[in-house]
Design goal:
CATH architecture of the largest domain: 2-Layer Sandwich
Helix content: 40-55%
Strand content: 15-25%
CATH topology of the largest domain: Beta-Lactamase
CATH superfamily of the largest domain: PAS domain
Distance between the termini: 92 Å
Largest sheet: 5 strands, antiparallel
Number of strands: 7
Number of domains: 2
Shape: rod-shaped
Strand order of the largest sheet: 2-1-5-4-3
Order of helices and strands: HEEHHHHEEEHHHEHHE
């Protein structure tokens, strides 16, 4: 056997062993986008058990949903012109430039439709006077799904913070307003009303503390909200009570507050603490 040929075969064997040992999927495509070679990682990611990828168009070898659903070869489906992956292959061949992109694609594997996220790199290569493409594919599905969970959690947290900021402003304003009224009011306030104001201040402080505790509670942030105490309450009585309570605040500013109700249904389900 020729010594040079032996060394070439040994080098090829070592290279194949190295490619089979890496987690990145590697596939070599010819000008027709047909699979000419792939490593084990590619087979694990895309090839059904008992099937093979060699000699197949890339989309068929990878069980692309477009090719499977339409029963066509890769390149002949109605969606191939919009396939970023296939377009990258074509650009790599024509421009002989490296293409890098992150994509999400749907595949059929084991009778199930799966959406996967990949980061891929394409590189133009010459082998035995033939133009080919080497494609490196990293499956980042798990990372993208975790990022999606974190993004959703962050969105919930921001929404909750906005609600909490609004909710906490009201009781703090009430505490300031009623304490200021008790200290500075020129109008004689009946002892019963003073007691009501103090109870209102206490309840507002308690509600504010609960909101602050919710802000510090990770489980509340993860759920994206706080619990509402929904009960059947008399809407008219509540508004009358609020109107009466704020009478003294309005009077100090020479404003008269009056409440008229034409509601036929007075009892409703709501959280009275949120008023």
């Amino acid at each position: 056997m020729n010594t040079k040929a032996l060394k070439f075969e040994e080098a090829a064997g070592i290279l194949k062993a190295m490619l089979d040992d890496i987690p990145t999927a590697v596939v070599i495509l010819d000008k027709k986008i047909v699979v000419r070679m792939h490593n084990k990682a590619f087979k694990v990611l895309f090839v059904e058990p008992g099937q093979h990828a060699l000699g197949k168009y890339c989309g068929n070898a990878m069980n692309c949903s477009f090719a499977i659903s339409e029963g066509c070869d890769c390149g002949a489906t109605t969606s191939c012109s919009r396939c970023n992956l296939r377009n990258s292959f074509i650009q790599t061949l024509s421009r002989k430039e490296i293409q890098k992109e992150k994509i999400s694609k749907t595949y059929y594997l084991s009778g199930q439709t799966l959406t996967r996220h990949f980061y891929y790199t394409t590189k133009f290569i010459h082998f035995q006077d033939e133009e080919m493409i080497m494609v490196l594919i990293d499956d980042i599905t798990e990372l993208e799904e975790k990022n999606k969970i974190l993004s959703d959690l962050n969105e919930k947290k921001n929404t909750f913070m906005q609600i909490a900021a609004h909710d906490i402003r009201n009781p703090i304003s009430s505490i300031f307003t009623f304490s200021d009224l008790l200290i500075n009011s020129k109008e004689e306030i009946p002892p019963v009303k003073k007691d009501e104001f103090l109870i209102h201040i206490k309840n507002s402080a308690s509600f504010s503390i609960q909101l602050l505790n919710d802000l510090l509670d990770l489980s509340v942030l993860e759920s994206g909200g706080t619990k509402l105490n929904i009960r059947l309450n008399d809407y008219t009585d509540l508004i009358n009570h609020i109107t009466e309570t704020y009478h003294y605040i309005a009077a100090s500013k020479k404003i008269r507050v009056t409440f008229f109700s034409h509601l036929q249904i007075e009892e409703m389900y709501f959280d009275a603490n949120r008023f």
